[in-house]
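Technical appendix A lists one of the benchmark inputs used to test multi-chain prediction within the project. The record comprises four sequence entries:
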Amino acid sequence: MNRRDRYSGDLELFELLEKLGELTDATGIPELLGRLLDIYGLKTVAYLGSGVTAQPGQSPYLAVTYSNEWVDHYKAQRFVDIDPTVQIGMRRMLPIDWDEFDRADEDVRRLFGEAKEFGLGRRGISLPVHGQHGDRALVSITSDASDRDWRYLRLHYMRDFQMLALHMHQAILRLEGKTVEQARLSPRERECLLWVAEGKTAWETAVILGLSEHTVRCYLESARHKLGAANNTHAVNKAGKASLLTQLP
Amino acid sequence: MNRRDRYSGDLELFELLEKLGELTDATGIPELLGRLLDIYGLKTVAYLGSGVTAQPGQSPYLAVTYSNEWVDHYKAQRFVDIDPTVQIGMRRMLPIDWDEFDRADEDVRRLFGEAKEFGLGRRGISLPVHGQHGDRALVSITSDASDRDWRYLRLHYMRDFQMLALHMHQAILRLEGKTVEQARLSPRERECLLWVAEGKTAWETAVILGLSEHTVRCYLESARHKLGAANNTHAVNKAGKASLLTQLP
DNA sequence: CGTAAATCCGGCAGATGCGCCGGATTTCGA
DNA sequence: TCGAAATCCGGCGCATCTGCCGGATTTACG
């Protein structure tokens, strides 16, 4: 909790954000994370991205300041299945303090106990990030700060962390080259797809929209073509991730 | 740009966040937005939510400090179709300054020109918010601040706005009672659904997973039941919105 | 120690999806 | 003024999905 007591310390956040925006390849990430630790007096920081790469069923994207030993141990123990930061944090919208997790659970206690041995801080926060295309990430920081410093950190720098998490995810997306070719669906196509996504059959959709069943099938067909989808299910999934189904234009 | 020059001004942000968390019904929102304008010296603030309510094809959720005249005029002119804050802002992850929009476009110039007449500020920022279930929102603020003050506001309070936008969306979701019953899918069920979502047939999925086609159909059937879905397409849509398809657990 | 859930397998009838054939008018921008 | 795209409509054959019948073992939890 140094250097940041003056308001002008904001400059260091801007510096980080700028560097994130200028990253050209993943090799610069570790240094950036290290700088982040420095600035905020943290013990560790970790980025876990899901749906960041193009292929489905891919393993998640990881960028951490943890030791390799901890990462290996974590994987070997399949901690991801019980880790509340992942299990709960990934399913939230707002950040969560690790203190809120259930320490009565023996598995959880073991996880955090071993984490500490491997160099993670006693306290932590996880910040979920939601991207536009179903991609999401979890940025977790840990610290060994005193109660007082930790409270201070949470109060005054949560915003910074929120912003850093967002920009970090954006940077990773840019580096991973996940570009989504935004197919443009016509209003009718979108409308038909929307109702099909709700489980309606072509006939039901036709009734809802006051069209003939055949017309609905035609719209669905062209929607599939535009989206490069193999079937309606695929099309709904693609359109959903491209947020083409959330009404509006 | 008053009252906030001291660092302790943070208290006002916390006060807003706390009030947002304590909202019990929508009637308290206008007062809260007004308080926000006061604190940051803004001209207007607007919340536009999409996918916030349960029904599909619903009109978006709106909470603004604009005059009713502007809202009516906006709707009558169908400005939503050309409004870059919606068209572009809603499709981004990071905030965008209204200065970045194409002022060469005649429609856009007309929109912002008329907006100013109806009491919106000259400058603006829109902050996209992405929820967990395909829901999203756009929080837009405007100001008539001088160039210098505006730059200052952007630099130092973007974090606050980001956080306010997030918490505002969370509060609206809570008020609108959009609760997603988290069905728990077994690993196999999720896996099958994942590949079906990628456009694979049951047979293809069976080959990929090394199962019999019939077994895949069984998993899909139970997945549909658990999700309360009418068919695979519906199931994929529901599971996707519940982020059950983003591998990991 | 029973119960529940997860993991697997087979078959069948009817509904639905899918692709491709044909046709039409209107609208909008180049 | 020409063409492209959006809006509509009908039919046919085959592939796939869906629901429901039956069976099995293993694992975990109380």
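Chain B touches chain A through 63 residues (CB under 8 Å). Strands of chain B lie at 44-50, 61-64, 96-97, 123-130, 136-143. Comparable benchmark entries are summarised in Table A2.
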